[in-house]
């Protein structure tokens, strides 16, 4: 961003900078003078005193803010923030020299010649110009002003970094979601189409309902999951369809239970966030066991969402959460990353495993 752009931009950081400089070089000196007048010279507090003092601070503030703002944009931000410390130290020495010349020949020189200003200001400027062998500004004030400008620059720099990190995390979450969508579509939808084909050959009455559920699921994945959040009822409806479609494949081999409690339209959730846990149960609870059970319970209590998924295991099966030769577990890994990004400190995952069963308990504070 150029200096001209930073002056006229509507960016919030530029607004913060200008508010900072206006307060430090205009408002704060006025308040300080007012406090001094009340405490030290209350007899002089007349309207003429305020008039002269206000004009003095506005004129001095105008002349003073220009070199400090230029130094802030041209040296502190590009040199100090980028850790070019050697060049920054040289810039400080150069600024002190330029500041002295500017104060004498530009600031006080101009004030001494501006006849429309109060006579008190003109007289003060002329007296300052006659001083020799000393700085025409306070070193202590200069150091203090440089320090607070450095603090401002670091504050804005850190805030920008945090904003970039949040954007990267959001991008990562969206990338993981796209991966989950692409992972779900090929193997699940093609397998389901094969099942529908087999049912159609048998002229089964389950064919039409299964096609309707599959169409509903495809519509949700293709269109609804492009939004950052969906009503929890929509996500539950999708999961219910998923379980129903899978149940058709394994209806003669397994006992499948899917229950929900307290689900409302007001609650929102990121799409396809719960699916990998249920999908994982079908992969391990049925495909490897060939017979067994799956139990899915989803409960919403106020803003606390709980997903409990329990399934049977094959004898001697390894941890379900680990990847195997079929790529299993990748979806769970991505889901854990999404949970860390989307609900930091507001989710927990508990796993209970025995020789015969595997259970996952996921808790999320949605709001």
UniProtKB/TrEMBL annotation:
Gene3D superfamilies: Histidine kinase-like ATPase, C-terminal domain. Keywords: Kinase, Membrane, Transferase, Transmembrane, Transmembrane helix. It comes from the Bacteria. The keyword Transferase applies. GO terms for molecular function: phosphorelay sensor kinase activity. Signal peptide: none annotated. Residues 176-253 form the Signal transduction histidine kinase internal region domain. This is Histidine kinase. InterPro entries: Bact_2-comp_sensor_kinase, HATPase_C_sf, Sig_transdc_His_kin_internal. GO terms for cellular component: membrane. The lineage of its organism: Bacteria, Pseudomonadati, Bacteroidota, Chitinophagia, Chitinophagales. PANTHER family: SENSOR HISTIDINE KINASE YPDA. The keyword Transmembrane applies. The chain crosses the membrane at residues 16-34, 54-72, 84-108, 137-156. It holds the Pfam family His_kinase.
């Amino acid at each position: 961003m150029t200096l001209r752009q930073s002056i006229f931009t509507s960016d919030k950081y530029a607004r913060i900078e200008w508010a900072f400089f206006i307060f430090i070089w205009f408002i704060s000196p006025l308040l300080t003078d007012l406090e001094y007048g009340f405490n030290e010279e209350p007899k002089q507090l007349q309207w003429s005193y305020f008039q002269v003092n206000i004009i003095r601070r506005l004129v001095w503030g105008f002349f003073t803010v220009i070199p400090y703002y230029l130094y802030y944009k041209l040296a502190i931000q590009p040199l100090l923030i980028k850790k070019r410390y050697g060049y920054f130290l040289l810039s400080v020495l150069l600024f002190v020299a330029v500041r002295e010349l500017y104060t004498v020949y530009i600031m006080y020189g101009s004030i001494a010649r501006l006849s429309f200003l109060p006579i008190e200001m003109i007289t003060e400027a002329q007296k300052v110009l006659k001083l020799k062998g000393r700085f025409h500004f306070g070193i202590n004030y200069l150091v203090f002003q440089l320090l607070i400008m450095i603090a401002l620059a670091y504050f804005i720099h850190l805030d920008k970094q945090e904003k970039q990190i949040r954007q990267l995390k959001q991008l990562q979450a969206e990338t993981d979601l796209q991966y989950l969508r692409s992972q779900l579509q090929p193997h699940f939808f093609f397998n389901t189409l094969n099942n529908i084909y087999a049912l159609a050959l048998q002229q089964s009455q389950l064919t039409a309902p299964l096609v309707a559920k599959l169409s509903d699921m495809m519509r949700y994945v293709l269109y609804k999951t492009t939004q950052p959040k969906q009503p929890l009822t929509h996500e539950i409806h999708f999961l219910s369809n998923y379980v129903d479609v899978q149940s058709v494949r394994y209806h003669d081999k397994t006992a499948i239970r899917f229950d929900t409690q307290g689900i409302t339209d007001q609650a929102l959730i990121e799409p396809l966030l719960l699916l990998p846990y249920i999908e994982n149960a079908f992969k391990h609870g049925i495909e490897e066991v060939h017979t067994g059970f799956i139990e899915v319970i989803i409960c919403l209590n106020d803003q606390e969402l709980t997903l409990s998924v329990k399934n049977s295991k094959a004898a001697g099966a390894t941890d379900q959460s680990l990847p195997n030769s079929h790529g299993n577990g990748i979806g769970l890994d991505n889901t854990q990353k999404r949970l860390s990004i989307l609900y930091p400190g507001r989710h927990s995952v508990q796993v209970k495993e025995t020789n015969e069963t595997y259970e996952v308990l996921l808790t999320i504070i949605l709001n």
